[in-house]
């Protein structure tokens, strides 16, 4: 089958594609249709952080597949209850209301709707360089002109502020806002970690003015930064947070978690989804939580990520401006475009993605990468970027 020409002719084109057909994956590796093996630091924009076809997740999926696949939110499901009880063990105290969705953007939509409903206000504050998803509400709070331009005017009134600018927080967090939405590490924006003092200033100003704080953990959360939730490493707690990407082992999922003190937020009919909380994804997600907690994912991410960042910071290549990141969320900011280096990396057996408007090589490897994989990553980058001098 000519996969490339079928996809190119029959699917609307809104992604620039790489000339590679992925045939199978296992943990930190994928293989293309010719059988060539790659170390996967792309992981489908971070979705395979728990590894491709993680055996615990495959076992849970196989068992669930042979029972039932779809159960509406109007009925109970054992798989859903199992997920919720395991997931609640991964939640800080006080976070008790879980909204199940099918994607990150949907989780952001649920969080924005909840903030409007709780506060009775309609505007939001977000940050330059932020990314929260492609649906119109999530796009409204996304601080990147490239993604927004064609769809203006967007539905929500949103102001954008400089990310990490502590001095401006007090002036920008005004009493008319429903919420401030912020990523603990801007992923799509180029892997920019939030400063603890910035997050603390946001928390203080929002609290003082009755504004909610939404932290978007869709890319950074679930162990990747060395904590279960990245905000736990920043000394702040949101009112609402969103999660997604790796939770169900690569199956579509999005979650908004609201502090219990706000209650159920919506009346019946005000929110819902056909596929949300379906038993198949729930079984995968319950196993995902098992992997997270049982295999020490945050600790491994902190250790391996620390080692990887240190090793990459020693890269001597003219193209590299700086190496940034937390845990296994790593960005190599370049003086030039990342795209041609991503192509070089593919030739060297490594998959990665671009971020930061195309100027950053983003590495989101699975938690199970070994020391040898980190060495391979470093040597492939060294070759791709070219040695200095
Ligand atoms: C921080 C953040 N929020 C939201 C989203 C949107 O998630 P999804 O692509 O699952 O809709 C992403 C996706 O990259 C993200 O990184």
TrEMBL record:
KW Cytoplasm (keyword) present: yes
Binding site for substrate: 134, 273
Molecular function via GO: identical protein binding; pyridoxal phosphate binding; transaminase activity
One Gene Ontology term from the biological process aspect of the record: L-arginine biosynthetic process via ornithine
One family name in Pfam for this protein: Aminotran_3
Protein's UniProt keywords contain Chloroplast: no
UniProt-annotated location(s): Cytoplasm
Cofactor note: Binds 1 pyridoxal phosphate per subunit.
Summary of subunit composition and partner proteins: Homodimer.
Entry's family note: Belongs to the class-III pyridoxal-phosphate-dependent aminotransferase family. LysJ subfamily.
Protein name (record): Putative [LysW]-aminoadipate semialdehyde/glutamate semialdehyde transaminase
Organism this protein belongs to: Thermocladium modestius
Gene expressing this chain: lysJ
């Amino acid at each position: 089958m000519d996969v490339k020409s079928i996809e190119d002719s029959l699917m609307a084109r809104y992604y620039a594609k790489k000339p590679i057909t992925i045939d199978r994956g296992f943990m930190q590796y994928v293989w293309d249709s010719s059988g060539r093996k790659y170390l996967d630091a792309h992981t489908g924009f971070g979705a395979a952080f728990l590894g491709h076809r993680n055996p615990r997740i495959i076992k849970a999926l196989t068992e669930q597949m042979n029972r039932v696949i779809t159960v509406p939110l109007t009925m109970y499901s054992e798989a859903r209850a199992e997920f919720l009880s395991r997931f609640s063990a991964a939640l800080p105290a006080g976070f008790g209301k879980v909204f199940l969705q099918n994607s990150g953007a949907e989780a952001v939509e649920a969080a924005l709707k909840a903030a409007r409903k709780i506060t009775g206000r309609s505007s939001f504050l977000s940050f330059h360089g932020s990314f929260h998803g492609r649906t119109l509400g999530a796009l409204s709070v996304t601080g990147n002109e490239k993604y927004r331009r064609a769809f203006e005017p967007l539905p929500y009134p949103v102001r954008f502020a400089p990310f990490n600018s502590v001095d401006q927080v007090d002036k920008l967090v005004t009493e008319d806002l429903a919420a401030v939405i912020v990523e603990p590490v801007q992923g799509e924006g180029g892997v920019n970690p939030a400063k603890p003092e910035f997050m603390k200033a946001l928390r203080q100003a929002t609290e003082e003015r009755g504004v909610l704080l939404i932290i978007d953990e869709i890319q950074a959360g679930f162990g990747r930064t060395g904590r279960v939730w990245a905000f736990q490493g920043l000394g702040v707690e949101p009112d609402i947070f969103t999660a997604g990407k790796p939770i169900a082992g690569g199956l579509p999922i999005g979650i908004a978690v609201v502090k219990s003190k706000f209650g159920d937020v919506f009346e019946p009919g005000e929110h819902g989804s056909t596929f949300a909380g379906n038993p198949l994804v729930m079984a995968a997600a319950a196993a995902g939580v098992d992997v997270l907690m049982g295999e020490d994912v945050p600790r491994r991410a902190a250790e391996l990520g620390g080692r990887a960042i240190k090793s990459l910071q020693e890269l001597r290549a003219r193209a590299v401006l700086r190496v940034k990141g937390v845990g296994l969320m790593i960005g190599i900011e370049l003086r030039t475009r990342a795209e041609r280096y991503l192509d070089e990396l593919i030739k060297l057996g490594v998959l990665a993605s671009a971020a930061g408007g195309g100027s950053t090589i983003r590495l989101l490897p699975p938690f199970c990468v070994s020391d040898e994989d980190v060495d391979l990553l470093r040597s492939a980058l060294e070759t791709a970027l070219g040695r200095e001098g």
